[in-house]
Amino acid sequence: MQELTLSPGPAKLTPTLDPTHRMELILSTSPAELTLDPACQPKLPLDSTRQPEMTFNPGPTELTMDPEHQPEETPAPSLAELTLEPVHRRPELLDACADLINDQWPRSRASRLHSLGQSSDAFPLCLMLLSPHPTSEAAPIVVGHARLSLVLNQPQSLLVETVVVARALRGRGFGRCLMEGLEVFARARGFRKLHLTTHDQVHFYTHLGYQLGKPVQGLVFTSRRLPATLLNAFPTGPSPRPPWKAPNLTAQAAPRGPKGLPLPPPPPLPECLTTSPPVPSGPPSKSLLETQYQNVRGRPIFWMEKDI
């Protein structure tokens, strides 16, 4: 056993580790010395008026980890192993799917889960692009998501919404795989056209065969209690803006002052330019960078469609 002896004078702590190696710790009111080994250990002076100092070896430091306990990187999902499954058939993945969508479009978690919970085979229907987890016992990885809704007065069309791929997996072909899977899913159920909107992915959808189209009305819910005449009362798309009208600059009767005296006439209008800019020849081209449609926030949107 180790012994600790206290005395009125300087305290002395003498733990015995080995008969050949002895360590002594001497505490006193004067600058103390910590002696580990009188033969080969350095002395470390302690001063109560100064902060302790720590000195590092300027040489490189190596950190060696046990190969058996090093973390393993999760391999990227394989395109050949991806599957497309409805959300309502995999309720254990609702939370992961909600996190994926909210990472792109932040929203209340309860509201997002409620929206995903409305998925059904009768539409709207939420689909997840899944990849098997490297660990067979773990749940699949949610790679992407998209929602399909019926289109008013177009029984063979579907509206594609909320298309998103996990941020860490973008640019690897998973977006194309998701959209191609939607086409296969829709064709197998008798649909022949897909519609969608986008703000900044026009070229991506153009490479997939989509072209600019007209707005459609998606049905966010279906019910036999609502007659078609009531649904038709809703607008099928954004109403066109009225053309801008220039102010009338024709001469009008000069207004009179308070005492009936006519006011001085307005200054004359500037003379019209004799030259006008040349009119481009040929039919106007339909640019993919121009659109006449806007969302409720005034942001331009592009309506696109594809026959499948």
UniProtKB/TrEMBL annotation:
Record carries keyword Secreted: no
Residue segments, region Disordered: 42-76, 237-288
InterPro entries registered for this protein in UniProt: Acyl_CoA_acyltransferase, GNAT_dom, NAA80
Identification of the protein by name: N-alpha-acetyltransferase 80
Role of this protein: N-alpha-acetyltransferase that specifically mediates the acetylation of the acidic amino terminus of processed forms of beta- and gamma-actin (ACTB and ACTG, respectively). N-terminal acetylation of processed beta- and gamma-actin regulates actin filament depolymerization and elongation. In vivo, preferentially displays N-terminal acetyltransferase activity towards acid N-terminal sequences starting with Asp-Asp-Asp and Glu-Glu-Glu. In vitro, shows high activity towards Met-Asp-Glu-Leu and Met-Asp-Asp-Asp. May act as a tumor suppressor.
Keyword Acyltransferase: yes
Keyword terms, alphabetized: Acyltransferase, Cytoplasm, Transferase
MF term (GO), any: protein-N-terminal amino-acid acetyltransferase activity
Positions with biased composition (Pro residues): 261-270
CC per GO annotation: cytosol
Record field: catalytic activity: N-terminal L-glutamyl-L-glutamyl-L-glutamyl-[protein] + acetyl-CoA = N-terminal N-acetyl-L-glutamyl-L-glutamyl-L-glutamyl-[protein] + CoA + H(+); N-terminal L-aspartyl-L-aspartyl-L-aspartyl-[protein] + acetyl-CoA = N-terminal N-acetyl-L-aspartyl-L-aspartyl-L-aspartyl-[protein] + CoA + H(+)
